[in-house]
Amino acid sequence: MAERKPRSVKRTRPGRPSGKKALEKKTKSAKAARRKQAASPERELERRRQKRETLRLRSVEPSFTVNDIERSVRFYTEVLGFIVTEELSDGAVLQGVQLKAGVCRLGLSQDDWGKGRDRRKGEGMRIWCRTAQDIDALASRIIAAGGRLAEEPGQQPDGVRSLSVADPDGFRLTIYREM
User: Fold this and answer.
1) 17 part of a folded domain
2) On the CB side of 88, how many CA atoms lie within 13 Å of its CA?
3) CATH number of the domain to which 85 belongs
4) pLDDT tens string for the chain (179 positions)?
5) Can you spell out the DSSP letters for 51-74?
6) Half-sphere exposure of residue 123, counting CA atoms within 13 Å on the CB side?
């Protein structure tokens, strides 16, 4: 038997590029596969898990501890226009309520005086409330219902028109409309 000599010509499959073109094609397809893998939902979820998770809220529902629950409920419903969605009681005495205005909720609870009757409320905090309503008409309604404005309607430097009210315990709500 005769010895075979090694061939210097590469054998390729029919229809497939060889040499430099084959390498370029492989490189492009590998890059595309990596991009596809990086963009996959599973990969994105894994990437987010490895990073520090951020808080993603859908709403904030503050709750105020008040001195006189009945007086506060009257203020929020009759003066501002909230509606009561839930009442919490110990059987005979109202202890708290859930209020709603538009899609926003607010809780009120009766102070149990565990921290003393002279405990100050509402200091150093303000709730900002965005509305699509006319601020001047809203101010007129609040005044007509017996409420007092802590700040008259006015144009703010950032382009919003707002008013502020303080509830019976001093909690401030600033209601604004972007212009």
Assistant:
1) no
2) 10
3) 3.10.180.10
4) 556 655 555 555 555 556 666 666 667 777 776 666 666 788 877 776 777 778 888 989 999 999 999 999 999 999 999 999 999 998 889 999 999 999 999 999 999 988 888 888 888 889 999 999 999 999 999 999 999 999 999 999 988 999 999 999 999 999 999 87
5) SPPPP--S----EEEES-HHHHHH
6) 3
138 belongs to a structural domain: yes
User: Running DSSP on this structure, what letter comes out for residue 20?
Assistant: H
69 domain residue, yes or no: yes
The domain tally of the chain equals 1
What H or E segment, with its residue span, contains residue 35?
Answer: helix 20-39
Rg (CA), the chain: 33
Give me the phi and psi of 138, to 5 degrees please. Answer: -65, -40
Residue 160 inside a domain? The answer is yes
